[in-house]
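Continuing the series of single-chain predictions for the mutant panel. This is the parent chain; the variants come on the following pages.
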Amino acid sequence: MSFSYYGPLCTKVYDITKPIGHSLGGDIEFYSNLLQHCNGRILEAMSGSGRMLIPLLETGLKVDGVDYSEAMVQSCRSRCTERNLLMPELFVADLENVQLPYRYEAIIIPSGSLMLIQDRRSSIRILQNLYDHLEAGGRLIFDLFLPDVTKPASIDTSTVRLPDGDTVTVEARTTEINLLHQYKTSLIRYEQWHEGKLVGTEMQELTLRWYGVEELRLVLEKIGFTDIEVYADFNPGQAPTQSSQKFVYEARRRSS
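Parent structure:
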């Protein structure tokens, strides 16, 4: 048994439940359209196994990826090879301290992944580091959501069948909701079964930290971002009005 963030078994489940090109509420279409005129390098931070990155590559964009999980990055490499894509630059690194050799025209963080940074000070340092990795005038674009905190003791179960015929059962149990410090923690147990026998177990502690719309705008301003826009459900110009909406942030590094 292992206690991990995004380990091998979790990655197998992720690859099946969130396959390449699987759009979450229109996010792939949104980012593809927003980035279509980029001529420079693009970085997807927390790029995972390529759900978003590979469709962007297939449009002809030059996209690098960085993720903390070796298993996720290796899955992304394998999927690029399967599609005969030119291998992108993929980095296994901690976003808080990483120093990449490039500066980017755009950096994106899709699917609410910024919320996976539990410590607020760490998330601010990560945003600062991403700011430093942008070209002058470069854009940071990311989306967030508000997690459901109405079920403090919920347990959700599901089953996923792997390509080799094995079955993975997934149990997600909410262990903590902290309204004061704005995070929700779940403990997720993955069990792999082969012909009725348990052959693998993996534990994942998943914390989602949420932010107030104006709170995060102020954080971005303090870092030095300008031209900050916030809109709802991937619709530029539509201001957020409901807690069930996704919130998209666009912000620029100063031109000089």
